[in-house]
């Protein structure tokens, strides 16, 4: 493998409801820094149907170039079609670094591409840097229960690939006057050759705000005693228009679905305000929320570790304190 053939930093730009997913914009911001340090170009890869207008948005958020695969066969995400497009693009244009958002689509695509290309993949990265002279990507992520940050290198193969957690990188301000190159790509794929068919898309009817996009999260833990006690969390979240988060023990007890779980084996979140209610503050939970803007903990044990992480703490029974807070917020916001 000749490393000299591989140039540029790429971002897979995931589309969500006709716009780039927030994490893709964050990655364009992070990718811009890597590309500038390496004195190379930043490119986005767009795969979809009627996605021409999105190409301009990708340039406006920092890319020098966008590779566009635009075909009805890419209308819905399918591992097979998107993987074929990405492999085609990588084989033709050879990036040095290729980043994906650590969303369900990004993780699926990155791992499928990594099974075909002779290269590695660092999952769930939270910090990125590059060695200016060698181009070696320094992809860091929490390891061993969040007690250390491991920096993972891919020394022998190219491209170097990583999935990056949402909300940890910063998007650049949009530059509406930005221009760049749009490269149209195509592949002779036939629907009959694709094994997966999308018959219907059923939108989730959940009324909950997503925790990875929320400004305010009200999270509850095992201290709430059971699903009935956990309702105080739902009511406070509703009063504040917030998302509901949970510790792993709550998810494992079946009080709420896994996509509400915060922490090492759940999601990393950085809301402006995070309420930790009846949550002990185990390291595996804290790694997922410690970068929140304002952390307010409510716990009946004054020695609970969560009080080491929070900005404000209330020592008391959550089943009494939280309904009082909810009432106070409801009247203040009425
Ligand atoms: P507990 O530890 O049982 O704490 C309950 C807290 O509530 C206590 O502090 C108690 O004082 C308080 N309390 C009790 N009653 C009341 C009341 N009436 N009012 C107020 N406070 C009260 N955990 C995660 O959260 N996310 C993860 O992603 C995650 N990943 C993990 C990965 C690995 C490999 C391992 C080993 C563990 C992981 N865990 C994770 C589990 C983690 O170690 C803890 O077990 C878990 O976070 C504890 O959940 P908890 O705080 O809800 O419950």
UniProtKB/TrEMBL annotation:
Name the protein family.
Belongs to the ETF alpha-subunit/FixB family.
Q: What is this protein called?
A: Electron transfer flavoprotein subunit alpha/FixB family protein
The parts of the chain that form a coiled coil are: none
Q: Which residues form the Electron transfer flavoprotein alpha/beta-subunit N-terminal domain?
A: 9-198
Pfam families membership = ETF, ETF_alpha
Q: Which domain of life is it from?
A: Bacteria
């Amino acid at each position: 493998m000749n490393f000299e053939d591989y140039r540029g930093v790429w971002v897979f730009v995931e589309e969500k409801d006709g716009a780039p997913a927030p994490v893709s914009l964050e990655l364009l911001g992070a990718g811009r820094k890597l590309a500038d340090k390496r004195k190379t170009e930043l490119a986005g890869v767009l795969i979809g149907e009627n996605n021409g207008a999105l190409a301009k948005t990708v340039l406006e958020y920092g890319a020098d170039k966008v590779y566009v695969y635009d075909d009805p066969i890419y209308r819905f995400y399918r591992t097979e079609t998107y993987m074929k497009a990405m492999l085609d693009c990588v084989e033709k244009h050879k990036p040095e670094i290729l980043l994906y958002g650590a969303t369900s689509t990004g993780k699926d695509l990155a791992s499928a591409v990594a099974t075909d290309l002779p290269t590695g993949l660092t999952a769930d990265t939270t910090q990125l840097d590059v060695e200016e002279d060698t181009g070696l990507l320094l992809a860091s992520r929490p390891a061993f229960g969040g007690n250390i940050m491991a920096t993972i290198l891919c020394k022998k193969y190219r491209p170097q690939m990583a999935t990056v957690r949402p909300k940890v990188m910063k998007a650049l301000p949009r530059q509406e006057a930005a221009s760049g190159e749009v490269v149209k790509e195509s592949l002779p794929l036939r629907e009959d050759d694709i094994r997966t068919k999308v018959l219907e898309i059923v939108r989730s009817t959940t009324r909950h705000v997503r925790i990875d996009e929320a400004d305010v999260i009200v999270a509850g833990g095992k201290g709430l005693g059971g699903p009935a006690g956990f309702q105080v969390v739902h009511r406070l979240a509703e009063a504040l228009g917030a998302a509901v988060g949970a510790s792993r023990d709550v998810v494992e007890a079946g009080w709420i679905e896994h996509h509400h779980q915060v922490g090492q084996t759940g999601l990393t979140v950085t809301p402006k305000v995070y309420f930790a209610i009846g949550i002990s503050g185990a390291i595996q939970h804290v790694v997922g929320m410690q970068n929140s803007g304002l952390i307010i903990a409510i716990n009946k044990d004054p020695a609970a570790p969560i009080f080491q992480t929070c900005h404000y703490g209330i020592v008391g029974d959550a089943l009494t304190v939280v309904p009082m807070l909810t009432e106070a917020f409801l009247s203040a916001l009425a």
